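A quick aside before the break. I want you to see a complete sequence-to-structure record at least once, exactly as it would be stored in a machine-readable document. Don't worry about memorizing anything.
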Amino acid sequence: MVPESLTLTTVLSLAWLLWLVMVGVGLILERRPPAATLAWLLALLFLPYIGAVIYFLFGPRRLRRRRLRYSRARNRLVQSAHDHLRQDHALPPGFPAADFEQQLATLMEHSGQGVPVAARDIRLLETGDGCFEAIEADIGAATHHVHLEYYIWQPDGIGTRLRDLLIEKARAGVQVRLLLDAIGSNSVKRSFLRPLEEAGGSTAWFNPIRLPRLGPNHINFRTHRKVVVIDGRIGFIGGINISDSHSSFSGSQDAWRDTHLRIDGEPVHRLQFIFLEDWYFATEKTPLEPAFFPEFTEPPTRRWLQVVESGPDTNRYAIAKFFFAAIAGARRQLLLTTPYFVPNEALMMALVTAASRGVEVRILVPKQSDEPTRPY
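That is the input. The structure line, written in tokens, reads:
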């Protein structure tokens, strides 16, 4: 007679093996990078219990659910904002005639991005203090709304100063909406935001970490965006978060060096749409007014700008495609600066190939990064 414990053990082992096979087949069919697929399979095989917990918390199925919900938010917003957004699919008249630039713009349009549009002005902001000064000046002049979305917002000197300015504008009747990432801005407590909410401003968290039913939301589904939209006319985007770490005036001897853009004109409409779809994802509310997408009657300039978005919510990988095409098409010089240089195999091959065919390739990275990267 077979012992009951042995029978139970056998049943559990068979059930585990069946589950492992099903998950393995699913991972292979997803056509993920081979290294990622192999890592998941090894974790599930050699760490039976820990690997299952990790897969449950971080596995691709949860990411697909996040993508589906985000896709629904986008579709809902597209339907609501249809009359306010530029619907052109052809390159605008006056866009540079160079074949390479047209090909890059067309590639992005086919990847789900908008076409290039002319801005009234584009200003490069190379320091944190200059960026904060420009943002505060434009927020101070806002008359209808201020929308902000940040990955990192620290409740330090810079963060408190900007929050107090938002409180002032909210009390003056300006619509203020602040969307923060639940992981990147985890230093911000409810007590820090309460004065803004009491003044009439609205705050929301992107994908907060909770424990509903059987487990938390997918932790890696984050917004790393730094977007500010003011009256639908002025926009800021780039790499500078709200933190004293970017400021040399805060006493920091080694202020982080990053780059930001101040945009004036119609390209801001695309930033507005991106913010609103993230806001809808976080709140399931679609605040939509004609004033969010104002018309520009001034004559267009030659300052062309095409806003390209990407992230874990889509499989189109627009930014990665743009980098690959631009690097592969470079003829004379390729200058690259980034705080995190972790290219995939395709981008690394494009860089090596460009250098091998005589293109001047220069890559500038921090001497000491706050995240480890593998050497090449």
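Two observations worth writing down. The longest strand covers residues 117-125. Residues 4-29 form the longest helix (26 residues). We'll return to this after the break.
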